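@channel sequence for tomorrow's demo:
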Amino acid sequence: MPRDNMASLIQRVARQARITFRSPAGPTFGENLHRLQQLLDEVRAEDLHLAPRGPSAAAAAAGGGLPWAGVVPPVSYMHICETESFSMGVFLLRNGACIPLHDHPGMNGMLKVLYGTLRIACMDTLPAAAAPPPAAAANGPCHRALFRSRQHYTPASPPCLLSPHTDNLHQIDAVDGPAAFLDILAPPYDPQHGRDCHYYRLLEGPPPPAGAEPPGLPREVWLMETPQAADFWCGGEPYPGPRVCL
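structure tokens (generated this afternoon):
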């Protein structure tokens, strides 16, 4: 059963997010961000009236000539609220679904796993180098990056954070079953203000010799900018949890 105070909790999360991201360059940003992280860490799936499952048939595209019209998507999104300074919602992933490697230009963000297990790979962009990119880069624009981490997150894990300069690129995979996470982005994506979402592919080097350990992390890598993958799309479905008013 949902906790009696959940309506106030999700409302407090939204209010704290509004306070935190209204002045991301202000002197109290770090303190406000920490408070938001603490609140987000308290949220559980049942608090949002969610039970473990993947995207539902309600998230299937209704038509419009899309190649996946009528097909249940690998990922769906439940919108909760949005202001000029932040957006908040829930992503649902079916077992084995992947949100491909992508960026968040000039944005802060945090996600909290509600159920299931996510494998999240995080990277930083690096300044352009004099050294040429791999030969495969001829297929698209290439960027240097620092591959910082690849970790598993569960409901017992603290929120995963990203900032404009740290862990700003990530790939999210659902492993061992469906998964869902509460997501806050600040400010929201907005192509008209230079905050469009770009997708990337990791250009792996030659495999290590037999018996050798794979390269460790963190390490520098090359990324190639790519179109959105043909097998990835995100549907929308209603948010069933407590209403948030801002």
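heads up for whoever presents: Helices lie at 6-22, 29-42.
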